[in-house]
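Lecture 7 notes: from sequence to structure.
We start with the chain below.
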Amino acid sequence: MRKNFRFLAAVLAVAMVVGVSACGKSDDTVKIGVVQLVEHPALDASYEGFAAALKAAGYVDGENIAIDYQNGQGEQANCQTIATQFANDKVDLVLAIATPAAQAAANVIKDIPILVTAVTDPADASIVDSNEKPGGNVSGTSDLTPVKEQIDLLLELIPDVQTVAVLYTSSETNSVFQANLAHDAIAAKGLTSIEATISASNEIQQVVESVIGKADAIYIPTDNAFANAMATVTMVTEPAGIPVIVGESGMVTSGGLATVGIDYYKLGYQTGEMAVRIIKDGAKPADMPIEYLNDVDFSINTDIANSLGIEIPAELAEKNTFGQ
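Predicted structure tokens for the same chain:
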């Protein structure tokens, strides 16, 4: 009888220790919800950089943090559903990757810190009060690219260009913002710009075909639908001999001619460092200005350049990071 009692007491003691330990782990684990609009190289790199920054600060998924990564499959409605799930799950922090995902999260979640990345202008997208003083529960990093320098690059590679077609998704706030900058930059060079937009990704091939014969070159900003369908774009442009200048290097890898842009891994890493300040130091998004990445890289697809008969100036060839 005594042996049975001692055994039962020992079992209960172990159970209590395990229970306390489990509760402590659960209480201490930081829950992070990630909503990414769609999979393509730039957005994927943003997430990878974010996770790497957390790990470098000692926050490892499955140990002291739990990351719930969700993909919106290119639909803002899906992003809103995911954001609602995160709110119901009472996660400690949300990362929203790309403007539509950020807008969805900001519309649904009001009492959980949200960091955004791969968003061109959070204020213009009505995600924050201002980029300098966000004022609410949202902050993060901007992927504002040097549009003027991208048009300069276009002219350096194709000096005899006269007409540039600007292609983008009309419903993406970030794309509209960049397209306006592109039109201004093209006009400042004394060139003509024409515009062709899509409202859904299944319109891409038709829209690209519509500018063949009307434009000497195409410019596409960091537009998520086009970034995810560069193979479709180049299927039309390469046989037609039309060069395509794009907003980021992942689009160059997928068939664009060239860009001067930011490194999305570094941008995501910078966002992860902001997350550490929130998790570790109790920083508030309201007081954290939107941050920018000042480093830019030249990326020129040499295979596409050769196919189009474009000679890359020696100075640009030295700066080229394509394939590195």
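Points to note: The radius of gyration is 24 Å. Residues 96 and 113 are 11 Å apart (CA to CA).
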